[in-house]
Automatic annotation (TrEMBL):
UniProt keyword Transit peptide, yes or no: yes
GO CC, one annotated term: mitochondrial small ribosomal subunit
Region (Disordered): 1-22, 44-86
GO MF terms held by the record: structural constituent of ribosome
Pfam families assigned: DAP3 (PF10236)
Organism: Tilletiopsis washingtonensis
Highest classification ranks of the organism: Eukaryota, Fungi, Dikarya, Basidiomycota, Ustilaginomycotina
Compositionally biased residues, Gly residues: 69-79
The protein's name in its UniProt record: Small ribosomal subunit protein mS29
């Protein structure tokens, strides 16, 4: 190939000039293509000699974005990171979206479920007394989150709940001997806190005096200020004492309870237990730590000694009474639960069954690994297996550290275990129905749980839905 171009003649016409220029452009283009092909052939031959695979330009796929969320399921359409179906957030911002109406549920009151075994598994809305507890912050954290997320805060009636209601009714009569306290035990997540709160609601609706401790761990996790009281040899917890006194002062039944004539360091009103509770709640800042702790202890002893109105002592995460706390003294030594004022007052009520008319009900919490049930309590309950495989820790053995003082307190209380099992088929059906009425979004976890319940009871979906 010739690499030189012939120049046009000087005397040629304009047409011949334009033709010559176009021919020169095409010749230049042909030259560039020839040079490029020559370069590629040379590079390929060199790569073939070296054994290197020649580079090939990759093709980039152009992704088309959708105009909006698409329905119909499958793997396409919708927002980024979602697998089919409507994007819930986008659907609710749609101007045509209509939220489902909150389901109309019966209230959880004795008039609704008294002697009605056929209502087991039915969803009930929490009564006003429980909603007031939620407003006051006297509620377990998990159930409190449910209150915020559910259109109508509700619960499922269980057979165990009816059995405990019947036991409470039998203990409400006067002249009954003090009963042994009962501890709700079972695997994690079976609903022990729900059953305990249902019993609290039943007692409040029946006119009982209720001392409800929704988060027992809050007494020992070092989240409340404390001060040492040398005269009582205990560490007073001002904020916790004020909270308990305020909860008791809101109950009208305390107005008929007389205060015991026991000596106190500070003069406090004693016309009625409700007046004493109101004074402790409203003037806690003006009272000394010793006066506040001593006044609350006197109030609890007065409520336990009276026989006019039945009293329920309900404690969630009750293992907090029998373990080492997160508090430390001035020498950075950890404090035991019995060294703190509020746990000590509760332990004094449990010792020798000081509640003359009423009952004590507690729940063993397994939701936190830091405050799991201690070996001393499990050994006193005779439920050593709860320390092992169910909680993910080494089972009790001959070398397990057991605090003798805590074990003595647990045995002195005389706890009786009440087993809380998994949901039955009727209870799972009730949960399914109420969630369907609420228009809730189902996930794989709930479907797996519901299928396990059905298979465990020999049921099929068609017989429950």
């Amino acid at each position: 190939m010739s690499l030189f171009l012939a120049a046009p003649r000087a005397g040629s016409s304009s047409s011949s000039s334009s033709a010559g220029s176009s021919s020169s452009i095409s010749a230049v283009a042909a030259l560039s293509l020839s040079l490029r092909s020559l370069h590629l052939s040379a590079s390929r031959s060199a790569a073939a000699k070296k054994g290197v695979k020649p580079q090939v330009k990759k093709k980039t796929a152009i992704k088309k974005t959708t105009s909006g969320p698409r329905g119909g399921g499958g793997g396409g359409g919708g927002a980024k990171g979602r697998r089919g179906g409507l994007d819930a957030a986008a659907a609710r911002t749609n101007p045509f979206f209509v939220a489902p109406a909150p389901p109309k549920l019966p209230l959880l009151t004795p008039a609704q479920y008294a002697g009605a075994e056929e209502r087991v598994g039915e969803a009930f809305a929490w009564s006003k007394c429980v909603r007031d507890l939620h407003t006051a912050g006297v509620m377990p954290k998990g159930i409190s989150r449910e209150f915020a997320s559910q259109p109508t805060p509700r619960t499922i009636l269980r057979p165990l709940s009816l059995s405990l209601f019947s036991s409470l009714d039998s203990l409400s009569g006067s002249g009954r001997t003090p009963s042994a306290p009962r501890m709700l035990v079972g695997p994690r997540g079976v609903g022990k806190s729900h059953v305990l709160l249902q019993c609290v609601a039943h007692a409040l609706e029946s006119g009982w005096i209720v001392l409800y401790i929704p988060r027992g761990i809050g007494m020992i996790n070092s989240t409340s200020p404390f001060a040492y009281v040398a005269s009582q040899q205990t560490y007073a917890q001002r904020a916790l004492s004020q909270s308990v006194a305020a909860n008791l002062a809101s109950q009208v039944a305390l107005g008929d309870v007389a205060v015991l004539d026991l000596p106190l360091e500070t003069d406090l009103p004693r016309s009625s237990a409700r007046e004493l509770a109101a004074h402790l709640a409203n003037h806690a800042a003006a009272l000394s730590p010793s006066a506040l702790a001593g006044g609350l202890h006197l109030l609890l002893l007065s409520l336990a000694a009276q026989t006019k109105t039945p009293m329920l002592l309900a404690i969630d995460d009750a293992q907090a009474l029998y373990m080492r706390s997160a508090y430390k003294d001035a020498d950075a030594r950890p404090l035991e639960a019995w060294q703190l004022s509020l746990p000590r007052s509760l332990l004094s009520l449990l010792d020798s069954h000081k509640i003359q008319r009423g009952a004590t009900l507690a729940a063993l919490g397994l939701s936190t690994s830091e405050y799991r049930p201690p070996a001393a309590l499990l050994r006193a309950l005779g439920r050593e297996e709860l320390h092992g495989c169910n909680t993910g820790y080494t089972p009790l053995n001959a070398y397990s550290a057991v605090d003798a003082t805590h074990e003595q307190h647990a045995r002195a209380a005389g706890w009786k275990c009440v087993e809380v099992g998994n949901l039955q088929a009727r209870e799972a059906k009730g949960m399914w129905d109420v969630k369907r009425m609420e228009g809730a979004t189902w996930n794989g976890e709930f479907f797996s749980f519901f299928a396990a319940v059905c298979v465990g009871h020999g049921q099929k979906y068609g017989t429950l839905i």
